[in-house]
Specification:
binds manganese (II) ion, L-fuculose-1-phosphate Aldolase, globular, 2 domains, 44% helix, alpha+beta
């Protein structure tokens, strides 16, 4: 419809009414003009590519999708992204689909406004703004997971704070913030992070933390690499289940801030161990 109206406008252009231009010439000029216009329009709206990402990074992103499903963090919903290795203003994320089915061909490149560089006709995740807005505010973050994993929901929906139960979950720090979407979207949203403003508000709530819970929704996990973010997303879910069990018995003694920080330094050097195990399971080799 847009192309048609552009061609019609062209007919009114003085040059198109040249007495030397026959009807065939006019149509050719119109089509050329329309093609030039749409190419220019696309160049103005689509961000430039950072170029091909490291194939090993894309392979890791596919593995991260499969692992997160195999470990019960994502199901048909949820997603994981990684910052582009050639340009920190770009990130990689699968097209809108179930994570367990993701292959290398499904990975798309986005700018930090969460606009796809070349969607190739693919549909993007509605909540991709979670990723772009966290990458904007957190230069240290190179990978993000969003999930609805069930163990964390009791902590997202009550005033009980998710806290580290053992050294493995030291990355939680002393407290885990909870994002209240009503503060930004009002009382009648569908709970989804469907635009940049909501993504920004979530990123502000996350602050310097590794994990933020989302009331009535799920959680988001951030880290310096795919291996680290998968480690944290898996153990956030494990920790939540353990904490729920402990709370039935009595008041737990959680790691304090110093213990949590020291354990995080130790664990940051060990994330490849479970990664290799989980990857072998999830990829079937
Ligand atoms: Mn969601």
């Amino acid at each position: 419809m847009r192309l048609f109206s552009i061609a019609c406008t062209c007919a009114e252009h003085p040059r198109a009414r040249s007495p030397h231009m026959n009807r065939r010439g006019f149509l050719t000029a119109s089509v050329t003009f329309a093609a030039t216009f749409t190419t220019t329009a696309r160049a103005q709206t689509a961000p430039a590519s950072a170029g091909p990402a490291d194939p090993a990074l894309i392979e890791d992103l596919v593995a991260a999708n499969r692992i997160l499903f195999d470990q019960g963090v994502v199901d048909g919903f949820g997603h994981v992204s990684v910052r582009h290795d050639k340009n920190p203003s770009r990130y990689l994320l699968a097209r809108s689909m179930a994570p367990a089915l993701v292959t290398t061909d499904d990975i798309l490149e986005y700018d930090l406004e969460s606009v796809p560089v070349d969607p190739r006709g693919r549909i993007s995740y509605l909540e991709r703004f979670i990723h772009g807005e966290i990458y904007k505010l957190r230069p240290d973050v190179h990978a993000v997971v969003h999930s609805h994993s069930p163990g964390v929901l009791p902590f997202a929906d009550t005033k009980v704070t998710l806290k580290p139960m053992n050294h493995i979950a030291g990355f939680l720090g002393e407290n885990t913030p909870v994002f209240e979407i009503r503060d930004t979207a009002g009382p009648a949203s569908d709970m989804l992070i469907r635009n940049a403003a909501l993504g920004h508000a979530l990123a502000v709530t996350l602050g310097p933390n590794s994990v933020a819970l989302m009331r009535g929704h799920g959680s988001v996990t951030a880290a310096q690499s795919l291996h680290h973010v998968v480690f944290r997303a898996v153990y956030t879910e494990v920790n939540a289940r353990v904490q729920s069990e402990a709370l039935k018995l009595g008041q737990p003694t959680y790691l304090n801030a110093e213990e949590a920080a020291a354990a995080t330094v130790t664990n940051n050097a060990l994330v490849d161990r479970p990664w290799e195990l989980w990857k072998r399971r999830a990829m079937g080799k």
